[in-house]
Amino acid sequence: MDPEHLVEALRGTMDPILREAAERQLNEGHTQVNFVSTLLRVTMSDQLDLPVRQAGVIYLKNMITQHWSDGEVSATEPPVNNIPDEDRQFIRDSIVEAIIHSPERIRVQLTTCIHHMIKHDYPGKWTAIVDKIGFYLQSDNSAGWLGILLCLYQLVKNYEYKKPEERQPLVAAMHIFMPMLKDRFIQLLPDHSSDSVLIQKQIFKILYALFQYNLPLELINRQNLTEWMEILKAVVDRDVPPETMQVDEDERPELPWWKCKKWALHILARLFERYGSPGNTTKEYGEFAELFLKEYAVPAQQVLLKVLYQYKEKQYVAPRVLQQTLNYINQGIAHALTWKNLKPHIQGIIQDVVFPLMCYTDSDEELWQEDPYEYIRMKFDVFEDFISPTTAAQTLLFTACNKRKEVLQKTMGYCYQILTDPASDPRKKDGALHMIGSLAEILLKKKIYKDQMEFMLQNHVFPLFRNELGYMRARACWVLHYFCEVKFKSDQNLQTALELTRLCLINDNEMPVKVEAAIALQVLISNQEKAKEYIVPFIRPVMQALLHIVRETENDDLTNVIQKMICEYSEEVTPIAVEMTQHLAMTFNQVIQTGP
């Protein structure tokens, strides 16, 4: 198909009247020699308007993702709609330049194309890709750097999850590219422009994909590790341009300066956690771990403490930057060398960084009021936990109190001070209870605290069930959930705990409170022997409330609660089994209709 007819057909796909005929024309043409090559030429043409080029690149991407892998059809079936060899060679020869020169909307589709091509052709049919990447990386024309780094990123991504013995083609290429990347980065460091920082970020993404699951030790020596560590520290330490403060806070994390810091911290935290912690690494990284801890861990920690100080001083820090900083600091608690440097700061970190992160915030309140169902989804989303600074703060708090004995005593003293002060802001009380609940596993193992926990629940948690603030009632349920294994000396206190959570579940008018109450009630019943019989008379309204909440929220944690409650009360639920089944059928129907 000649270029004019191809452009006409691509234009036709955007017109509802002509679309069917245009798509038929494209489908008939795509096995012909030169069709795919012409498609790429159209995509690369500056003379054509962007919608036509976009239609072309999407069609090209679909063809390459579906038909590039020629060797994967069975012996009895001929290849279907295969791409002719002449076109394959043209695409291999041209796609790198296409990525370099295309606008972003086209480029993003072309990077998917090159990913598939590398997957099937490198190294066997396409060693030339390495030469081409090397050529553009060394070029003085900075306009091509981001595009070529995107090509290199796709090469590395293809090997990211492979076993070390399968990564040799990548390691061989990275022997050539690592010095180039380092030199390019050092050259770019003084330039804080958006374009420069985007290129720096892309280099970090390449390194992270290279190191995430395997650290190729043959690429690392003391000299280049020292140089890379200096680069990483410089990026974390440098100021973000003041004009970024004019950008809306929700959009700031997407700015290149914060993204670049995030990837620098990703690499530092990963190096320390997976390869640089003696005693926690696999055998082959033993020597590297000793070197990293001795030479690099403390200087990096010093820079990261400055990030925490900025947060403490109420300066803006992007959430993922804060989260990765806390992850690195957490890793340092267990090692004597980093702990010695960290110890003077730990109480300040807990009180001025961890504690504020664990308090109920304005954004929590906004979400609770505007969309309580989204609030519930966010609080129970494991993926949210994976990126949340609050979860990172909780982990750091637990590690410090578990590994370093003096920290627990001071932390509990700080929390009790807040709880016993009648003038304390409710949000601070929420934060203190959040901290205590996060430490429940440690507290219930230590005699000095274990015996005080019932008293703590009685005096500081039970009264909150009558609090007018929904988030405080939810926190009261949450704390009971985390202290469900406490040994109650008084049956009356156990009964009160059950009664308060039951009433919250059935009568509270705030859905997030009901959800926390449901989970708390179930874990109390499962962990407290006497609890089961106390709830027997109320099993019908309890199960009805649970079914109602599941239908309203579609929360997976609550499905498990119902399952466990049915196991605990199999006899008692038999009379309401039909009613429950109808409820569950309605919920299932609702889920199907609303879709994912």
From TrEMBL:
Matching entries from InterPro entries are given as: ARM-like, ARM-type_fold, Importin-beta_N, XPO2_central
Domain Importin N-terminal per the UniProt entry, residue ranges = 22-101
User: What protein is this chain from?
Assistant: Importin N-terminal domain-containing protein
**Record-level Gene Ontology MF annotations:** small GTPase binding
Q: What is its main location?
A: cytoplasm
Q: Where in the cell is it found?
A: Cytoplasm; Nucleus
Entry keyword annotation includes Ion transport: no
UniProt keywords (A-Z) are: Cytoplasm, Nucleus, Protein transport, Transport
**Which biological process annotations from GO are given for this protein?**
protein import into nucleus
Q: Which organism is it from?
A: Pleuronectes platessa
Q: What domain of life?
A: Eukaryota
Instruction: State any GO CC term.
Output: cytosol
Known Pfam families for this protein?
A: Cse1, IBN_N
Q: What is the lineage of its organism?
A: Eukaryota, Metazoa, Chordata, Craniata, Vertebrata
